[in-house]
Amino acid sequence: MDIFYLKGELKNYFFILFGSIILALGVVWFFIPNEIITGGTAGLALLLHYVSSYSVGFWMVAVNLPLLIFGIKFLGKAFAIKTIFTIILISVLIDIFSQVFKLQAIVYDTILASIFGGILIGIGLAFVIRANSSAGGSTIVARVVSLKTEIKPGQVIFIIDFFIILSSLFVFDDTAKVLWSVVSIYITAITIDKILTGNLNKKVVHLVTNEVEKMSDLIKEQIGPYGTIISGTGLYNEDKKMILIVIEVTKLQLLRQLVQDIDPEAFLIISEANEMLGRGH
Q1: Crossing angle, helix 77-95 and helix 56-75, to 10 degrees?
Q2: What is the pLDDT of residue 131?
Q3: Residue 185 near residue 125, CB atoms below 8 Å
Q4: How many other C-beta atoms are found inside a 10 Å radius of the C-beta of residue 70?
Q5: What pLDDT sits at residue 146?
Q6: Residue 60: its pLDDT value, please?
Q7: Rounded to an integer, what distance in angstroms lies between the CA atom of residue 126 and that of residue 85?
Q8: Domains of the chain
Q9: Could you tell me which residues come within 8 angstroms of residue 29 by beta carbon, excluding any fewer than 6 positions away?
Q10: Does the keyword Transmembrane helix apply (predicted)?
């Protein structure tokens, strides 16, 4: 048990290290030289760097650690330790890359920097999240507020990002940079989602039909071998049965045709399969 736990923790810290390096490179290569900001406290640290003589790494620690101390009792010891490690590591790496190694910008172009910087930040954050850690205080604030109120964490993070972007309007003369910063935040969110949940080309189908046996046989023959029959009761206390399956998008039209041929009165609900675990996934 201890060996498996140790291996898991070593893997988590490797993910944190890798994610922190990628995130720091995204900031140094794209964001700092092009004066673009991102969301959360990392964006606030960049904003404070642009208006002061202190480094981004300094502001990362200065902004995040007080928030972490404030919220540590809500996060759990293991998560708090990883988060402290992640914040300090990212802060140190940003300063080392920018001030010691003096890495130069890959491109001086707001549009390209916002796109590729957003991708790198997203990759870095995704690996940090996979390691059950956090890279910023906005997540901490969101968790604490959601525990104390009925406000959802996503809404808190959105409000924080909104005020950071709004503040940047008073720092940058170029409104276009502010707008491209918003685009960069969106690209980061999409990148995180793709890495954590994958790019599944599948749909979840709930099929309510009176021809359960016929449909089950046809689905096994022409769609795939996996599915679940769920029994239930209708609003008028009648017996109902539903077939739950996950299919590839390319087979969706075939399923529609089978349903139309066998039971035109059947009811289909089709939704996205955002994440799948088990059976090789």
Answers
A1: 180
A2: 86
A3: no
A4: 13
A5: 67
A6: 86
A7: 16
A8: 2-197 (no CATH), 202-272 (3.30.70.120)
A9: 103, 105, 106, 117, 120
A10: yes
